[in-house]
Amino acid sequence: MNYLSTRGHPDRKRFCDILLEGLAPDGGLYLPEQYPKIDTATLAKWRELPYAELAFEILSLYIDDIPPADLKAICAKTYTAEVFGTDEIVPLRELEDGVYLEALSNGPTLAFKDMAMQLLGNLFEYELGRRGAELNILGATSGDTGSAAEYAMRGKKGVRVFMTSPDGRMSPFQQAQMFSLQDENIHNIAITGVFDDCQDIVKAVSNDLGFKRKYRIGTVNSINWARLLAQVVYYFAGYFQATASNDRPVSFTVPSGNFGNVCAGHVARMMGLPIQTLVVATNENDVLDEFFRTGIYRVRAAADTHETSSPSMDISKASNFERFVFDLVGRDAATLRQLFVDDLGTQGRFDLSGNPAFKQAAERFGFKSSRSTHADRLATIRDTEKRFATLVDPHTADGLKAAREHLVPGVPMVVLETALPIKFAETLVEALGEEPARPKKFEGIEALPKRVVKLPADAEAVKAYIAQNCD
Ligand SMILES: *Cc1c(COP(=O)(O)O)cnc(C)c1O
User: Fold this and answer.
1) Using a 6 Å CB cutoff, which residues line ligand 1?
2) Which among 85, 148, 341, 459 could bridge 204 via Cys, Cβ 3.0 to 4.6 Å?
3) Percent of the chain predicted with pLDDT > 70
4) Is 359 designated active site?
């Protein structure tokens, strides 16, 4: 399997080459040259497999530069009941007639990003070991991504994590999750500033090419293809749990921000998994809902990006969206460049409303969308508690609301549960007047010793800290 860039660069790469990379050299995103198609016999065989073996079968179709026995061992080591809480790994439960919740948030940090990041940690350790190389991961987080990365990379050979976060601006629970890690290869850096300052620092350090090369700086952001690929697996696992046979369609609703999660659903559908509809659920930051309603993709300015009660979906642009649009325009790199380089570069938007391709988003690729507000979120959390004695987090609540707007009788609707309610206790308290129960392993974590350094919002200070901690 070879990988190409959405922007038409002539080079073709293999999986392990792009594993440790971010963007393609031309600024595009990597995609496989074609999606492997699954026949009915294969699908029937896969239905019977435990999660780790299903993961191995799917990953094998995209990874041909890791020996199968090694890849199998990596999958077996990653997807265990010990790490994810159950043998099913992503258990499905029926909430109401035809509506299901697929639990993706029982990993170490209680959000779905663990599903991919835990695999990435093991793949990085394997590949760096094979090359005798090291990697220093530099990131900026306001919560979920940073902690998922730290829990995936802790104790891994050849990897260090330098994670910046805005000082005092994460919830006490999220802070405690990250700062209580005592592993030597994990460095928490609290920046005196806001999240944008952290992102600016990461950009400034990465733009210093000499420093980047000398200290082997890398990232684990959501455009990483391996993360997306890992997520394809739970669409298959959810499908098998929601159906008794492989001739039945299923729809999925996905609380979305950077379009990484739902893009994995798109890949599963392109492989031939019988997915009828992919519902993109957004919050007040409705860049994606606007596109699927109108054909206009309009990047928001910082001032127009809202801080909401489903903060992991607060985006101004959706960094994985380019992958889907590449397929939508028939994989024509010139058209793609026109949209993402020329139009977005000069006008901050592109308009496909008059283009016949836009109709295909719904008709051929099965996409629909919805938008939720803070009031919707509270109402959904209350209603779900009252009618089903089930607590959902604010992101999953956005999903549930969207799902109900696109139900089709006879077609199971699977809502992806992207976080557990305890991560967003403040909003649960606002909705219900009480704190959600906390899993045992997180009791009292706020009182644990914290490992964190405080630095000013200055890229030079962060560089000096990295240099100091890299021997
Ligand atoms: C990251 C995240 C999302 C958004 O996922 P994307 O892949 O960026 O679309 C939704 N909910 C939660 C809880 C998240 O952490």
Assistant:
1) 111, 113, 144, 222, 255-261, 312-313, 395, 418-419
2) 459
3) 100
4) no
